[in-house]
Every structure is written in C-alpha cells, then in structure tokens.
Write a structure and sequence with these properties.
By secondary structure, this protein is of the alpha/beta class. It has a single domain, classed as Rossmann fold. The protein contains nine helices and six strands. It has a six-stranded mixed beta sheet with strand order 5-4-1-3-2-6, with helices on both faces. The longest helix has 19 residues. The protein is globular, with a radius of gyration of 16 Å. It starts with 5 loop residues before the first strand and ends in a 6-residue tail after the last helix. The relative contact order is 0.21.
C-alpha cells in the first residue's frame, strides 16, 4: 500500500462500526473505539508506540486528533463518515441514553466524550454544533488533498465499496458492504495484524448468519 495508516474521522453513529467491519473484510488490521491509546494521545504522545500497530482506526477519540495523525503518520489516508444531521442527532441521543451513567468506572469513556463533544452528557444543540463544526474543520484542513481525504456517506451510497476501494486503491470485494448497527463488537473490536485472517472469518460467518444486526 502507498499509505501507512487509515484514520476514520467520523463521529460516533456515522457508520464507524460499518467502516471498521469493512476494513477487516478488506484484510486490514483495525481497531474500533481505541480507548486504550487515549491517555497518551491526550497527553500529546503520538509516537509509534502510542498510536499502535493497526492500519485502520475508527470511532472516538480518533476524530479529535486528525491534525496530529496527519503529522505523525505521513502518507496516511483519512475518511470522514457523515450522516444526515437530523438522523445523526436522534441516533447519538439514543446512543447516550443507552449507555451506563457516569461514575468512577466510566472515567476514560467520559474523558474521551469530553475531548470530542465538549460534554459527557447529551446536549442536543451543542452536539449539533459540534457535528457541523467538526465536518467543516476537517474538510477545510485537508483542502484540495483529494487523495488524502474521503468524505463518505455510507447510508446514501448505492455501493460504498466503490468509493472506499477507489480511495484506498484496492480491488472491490464481492459481497455486500457491511451495514452494522451495534457498536458492541466483542472480540472483533480490535484486530491485530496476526489476527486478521481468523477474525475476518468470524465476521464473515456473522454476516452470513445475519446476527450482526444489519441496519
């Protein structure tokens, strides 16, 4: 590959789980919701050890650090997943409502939410502002670097594989693009380079059985 890493810059509930699954089906080591690295990122550590061995990264807190990743990981690619804002705000409200209340046990989760959203609790107007501002800033930052940033609306694409694979310069796979609703991936949340084939077979089995809650 001509690029070193791929960072998903979409906020939660914009298709980040689906993008993570797509990366695995494409044979890439990938991690979704990488909270284990967040403390180092918050402290400004973007060394290779702090970023980790994965090729593909999705979900918060990744979107907050696109400038840092762009500098620390030259020749990387970035994917901004977007969604109709009216649909997104309903989905993110449901997401926050269905997670456990803040406590000492949710310290890391709450820190990451604060870094991205400026809040640990749902606030409709503030979240809408954050969503719009984030999308605008990402697009402006990358400017005319069309080979570096892909803006992808998975729900609107007739076949997201085409846009994604053209951007990544890889062959389009057979089969449907994975539309996953649940962020609870279990053992598939992170896929080390040595685990790609094994965990891809697990995902393929789940998709065939329809137990993945396709959206």
């Amino acid at each position: 590959m001509a690029y070193s890493k791929v960072f998903g810059l979409g906020l939660s509930r914009t298709g980040t789980t689906s993008l993570h699954a797509a990366a695995l089906l494409l044979g890439m080591s990938t991690i979704h919701y990488p909270v284990q690295f967040s403390r180092k990122w918050m402290s400004g550590d973007f060394s290779s050890d702090a970023i980790g061995p994965f090729i593909f990264y999705t979900d918060i807190p990744v979107p907050a650090y696109y400038r840092e990743f762009d500098i620390a990981c030259p020749n990387s690619k970035f994917i901004l997943t977007i969604r109709n804002p009216e649909d997104w705000i309903v989905s993110i409200e449901n997401h926050f409502s269905n997670t456990i209340l803040s406590s000492s046990k949710t310290f890391i989760r709450d820190n990451n939410r604060f870094v991205v959203y400026g809040e640990t609790k749902f606030d409709r107007q503030k979240f809408v502002d954050v969503y719009n501002r984030h999308c605008d800033r990402v697009v402006k930052y990358f400017g005319n670097r069309v080979n570096t940033l892909l803006v992808l609306d998975i729900a609107k694409e007739s076949d997201p594989w085409i846009s994604l694979c053209n951007f990544l310069d890889i062959d389009t796979p057979s089969g449907n693009f994975p539309h996953l609703r649940s962020p609870n991936l279990g053992v598939l949340q992170f896929v080390l380079p040595t685990e790609v084939e094994h965990k891809r077979s697990i995902l393929e089995g789940l998709l065939k059985r329809g137990t993945s809650k396709n959206s």
